[in-house]
Design brief:
- This protein is an all-beta fold.
- The chain is 3% helix and 49% strand.
- The protein is built from two helices and 42 strands.
């Protein structure tokens, strides 16, 4: 992911007010050091999130949930809001007629921002909003001050029938310049879109690169895609290439500007869901939170380098790390997408997939397509490889039932604190501590706020031990279909590394 270097002088005072989106520390890497010593980790002062347009179905019912955990040291002021990505021109008459060039009313060239869709009121308490039908727009969300650190927005959509029917969920993502999506498809039953949302005042120029089982797919129309300012573009993958591909890796490379990106994967028979971006290419990966009643699990992996990757496949079960029979390893050819059916790999128990190199470490991206149900009552969700929880991670939009929190400690044992926030319409926060044994996955029925009304958020904070990975599953049975959606829980990047002001000045004086 891209990173922005803070100025030595302005770093301490600005506190990422301008670059809070991009200068956040990696949870699994040491904090950057200045010439005078380690930088301080302080709360971000501004952040931005992008939510894709939820659905084109007239039967879609979408809810948005915004939540900011209470963060020690955060500013006392600030605000947060979600607005439609598109802006309407202030000099466009309501009747749609075109004004003459000589009728300038002083507003020409200015944009009139749309009214906020959602405006959070205070940290520590979720705020929800709803939309119906297929006209809901993509959203640009901004937060500053006390609302910025750890801000999370969840978009959840129920589609009653048709292609992609079931439950679709996605965490709204920060704008960036590089995204990998293994697990997309242009199969006959699939309708996959990559949604590109530009939050800025200038156009973004994007290349969409596609990689199938035999390597890169030629696509002239996938290059130089312009995403206009404050707008969103859904790109149908099947229009970029002629040939059908069961397993496809999508690489979104932003040449100019930045965008938010997510893939909406819709199936005529198996429902559908959002496919979030895999974590940055790495030699070892963790894909947490496979539902224990999964009837089919398919691994899709890709290595962007020029060397093949050989990966050891293990399942972190409640009793420890096990090697699935018949799927001990997977070979990923350089530049080619590899798919492997793992079947009902969890066999009725909670599980997470752990991929490690058998010998030489080669960077890989990966995702799982997970199916629940049987026959014509099946539903699909996706689990990308993710970063560890790190300092803190948050899951918004939980109800009194239907939520499962899955935590994995692939190495050493770990102790974590899970906090259920106040409800959106009332309730008292509650916290509980759990110990996850090394090499295991534990499914947790999360604590619920006392006197819960509405929805609530879950915050996961490691207390001690090794790295922890997490995912949250939302489930709801609709017409006999076991509808569900899974969101991973990477570090919320609520802090930024900022050099000490006196250390910076001493460096400049030398």
């Amino acid at each position: 992911m891209n990173r922005t270097t803070l100025s030595l002088i302005a770093g301490a005072t600005a506190l990422a007010a301008v670059t809070g989106f991009a200068a956040l520390s990696q949870p699994d890497a040491p904090a950057p050091e200045t010439a005078a010593g380690a930088a301080a980790q302080l709360p971000v002062e501004r952040t931005s999130l992008l939510c894709p347009a939820p659905s084109t179905s007239d039967l879609a019912e979408t809810s948005y949930t915004s939540f900011t955990p209470v963060t020690k040291g955060a500013e006392s002021g600030g605000k947060a809001e979600l607005r439609a990505a598109a802006q309407e021109s202030a000099d466009a008459p309501a009747d749609g007629t075109d004004k003459g060039k000589g009728e300038d009313d002083g507003k020409s060239g200015k944009d009139k921002p749309a009214e906020p869709v959602l405006t959070p009121r205070e940290p520590g308490k979720p705020v929800t909003g709803d939309s119906s039908g297929g006209d809901a727009p993509a959203l640009v969300a901004t937060a500053d001050g006390r609302f910025a650190p750890g801000w999370t927005v969840q978009e959840t959509t129920e589609v009653a029938a048709g292609t992609g029917r079931g439950l679709q969920g996605v965490n709204c993502t920060a704008p960036d310049t590089d995204f990998w999506f293994p697990g997309a498809s242009t199969d006959a039953d699939r309708t996959d879109y990559v949604h590109l949302t530009n939050p800025d005042d200038s156009p973004a120029v994007v290349d969409i690169e596609l990689y199938g089982k035999d390597g890169a797919l030629k696509s002239a129309v996938g290059e130089d895609i312009t995403v206009q300012p404050h707008s969103s573009e859904p790109v149908l993958l099947s229009t970029l290439v002629d040939e059908r591909q069961t397993d496809l890796t999508v690489h979104v490379n932003v040449r100019s500007g930045r965008v938010g990106a997510a893939v909406q994967a819709l199936d005529d028979k198996l429902g559908g869901d959002w496919l979030a971006a895999s974590t940055d290419p790495s030699g070892s990966l963790v894909l947490p939170g496979i539902p224990k009643d999964a009837t089919s699990v398919r691994l899709v992996a890709f290595t962007p380098g020029d060397a093949d990757a050989d990966l050891k496949v293990r399942l972190a079960s409640p009793s420890g790390l096990i090697t699935p029979a018949g799927h001990e390893t997977v070979h990923v050819k350089a530049g080619m997408t590899t798919g492997a059916d793992l079947g009902d790999v969890t066999r009725g128990e909670a599980g997470s997939l752990v991929l490690t190199p058998t010998d030489r470490s080669v960077p890989v991206v990966a995702a799982l397509r997970v199916v629940r149900g049987k026959g014509d009552k099946q539903e699909t969700a996706f689990i990308p490889a993710t970063r560890p929880v790190g300092t803190r991670a948050t899951s918004a939009d939980n109800s009194g039932k239907g939520s499962t929190l899955s935590l994995t400690a692939p190495g050493a044992a770990a102790t974590v604190k899970v906090t259920a926030s106040a409800g959106s319409e009332g309730g008292t926060p509650v916290s509980k501590t759990y110990t996850i044994k090394g090499g295991t996955t534990q499914d947790i029925e999360p604590p619920a706020p006392g006197g819960l009304k509405g929805t609530y958020a879950l915050t996961v904070e490691p207390v001690s031990g090794g790295p922890v990975y997490g995912a949250r599953t939302l489930a709801a049975t609709e017409g006999g279909v076991p509808a569900f959606t899974v969101q991973t829980l990477p570090d919320d990047r609520g802090t930024v590394a900022v050099p000490e002001a006196d250390e910076d000045l001493s460096v400049l004086q030398k």
